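Researcher: Go.
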Amino acid sequence: MSGESLERYFRMIRDDRQSRPSGRLWCPAADVYRSKDGWIVKVDLAGIKPADIEITLETDVLRISGSRRDGTCGEGVSHYQLEITYSRFEKMIKFPRSIEHASIERDYRDGLLIVRLREEQAKAARR
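Model: Structure:
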């Protein structure tokens, strides 16, 4: 590496520490459970406000999306190391059959979003 390209490399590193990386779409981890009356989906969404989470259900696909923002990085703050992704996210879960008429209950606690999908057939069978 020449002296000029080495200097440009170190200048790029310094400049990069002054700004937040561009937002890339990320996919959070999720666990899916089958219950007697439907499904339970648990998604790891640490650091996300419940108001920033959107849940939609179409036929056999549950879509959970939103955005995680970094409130720490602002004017006069630079970063040294970044490993947490701050940008839009999307998690799509495909079920083995249509569940579009399931009721959706959500609970957000300790960084975990828990979505309960109660299928209409299970409700009717209990009556």
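Model: The beta strands are 30-35, 38-44, 53-58, 61-67, 88-94, 103-109, 112-118.
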